[in-house]
Specification:
Elements (H helix, E strand, L loop, with lengths): L2 E7 L8 E7 L6 E10 L2 H7 L16 E8 L11 E4 L2 E3 L5 H4 L10 E2 L19 E5 L4 E2 L6 H4 L5 H11 L7 E5 L3 H12 L3 E6 L5 H7 L3 E4 L3 H6 L4 E6 L14 E9 L13 H6 L2 E4 L5 H14 L5 E5 L3 H9 L6 E5 L1 H4 L2
Parallel strand pairs: 10-11, 10-13, 11-12, 13-14, 14-15, 16-17
Antiparallel strand pairs: 1-2, 3-4, 3-8, 3-17, 4-5, 5-9, 6-7
Helix pairs in contact: 4-5, 4-9
Length: 351
Amino acid sequence: MTTTVRSYAAVASDSPLAPYKLTRRTPRQDDVTIEILYCGVCHSDLHTARNDWGWTQYPIVPGHEIIGRVLSVGAGVTRFKPGDHVGVGCMVDSCGECPACTQGHEQHCPESTYTYGGADRYDKQPTQGGYSEKIVVSQKFVLRIPDGLDLAGAAPLLCAGITTWSPLKNANVGPGSKVAVVGLGGLGHMAIKLAKALGAEVTLFTRSQGKEDDARRLGADHVVLSTVAEQMTAAAGRFDLIVDTVPYAHDVNPYIPTLSFKGSLVLVGYLGPLEPALDSVPLILGSKAVAGSLIGGIPATQEMLDFCGAHGITSDIEIIKMAEINDAYERMLKSDVKYRFVIDMASLKAE
């Protein structure tokens, strides 16, 4: 039986998010029905709500950093039981058969179904996200939240956490590694925390003065002002990996000389053409690489959550009420948050 739940949705690209009655599907045999307790606020939520990428179908309920409590499970569910604390990230389904899926990289599946803005593979209905009271998700895409993690602070791990974890793990970052992070925002602060916990020597690249104290609090060993030529020159050849979290078009060329031989710069924050164009000369001469990384598969996400549970890592957050989401979007555009908004979904029930 379908269920009608309260949510917040955008009904047009130029309209604010507002209360919306959302119908959740009848649970299937392998489904988990989840009461949503907290939902993180991601830049992707804003871009989708405002159709910045050109594919949004309205109405749209954003939210893919979901923390909740299991209410019920289908007859075929073996991994979860009512009362468990669980998470749902950016995906809720995939084909399960392609090379990406069988290798645990469901995010690269051609049929990957996003938590919102996608279409259910079975009934073709649009998927809707976590700015809502409840969600119904296949157990294959539900994640276990380790005991002891602050639930609100864990919400951004489902996107910001896995987005920055993947390039670190792909580069085998550990003790002795030298990692730099470009940008200190929702993604950047998680990259610093995770890289430091993995044992790396961590440096923050920033264009802004005054971020050193916060960067060091988060775990950075060094801070380099990318606008100061002398500091950039002193960093030449230092880094095995640079995680670039900047969410808009920017010049990556100044960072390439700071990579070590065979080092890589990985873009995780920006989708689109690089401006200005990338100079291939230092890449070829130094056997360096510029790459991209997209969130992470379900096995990697659970590994990241377990690692965070073992090390007590959560996101630095500001908790807001559901009714404050439009103001939060405007503040997020101004980088006026340290470092991630999280919605207390109990505030939706109170409306």
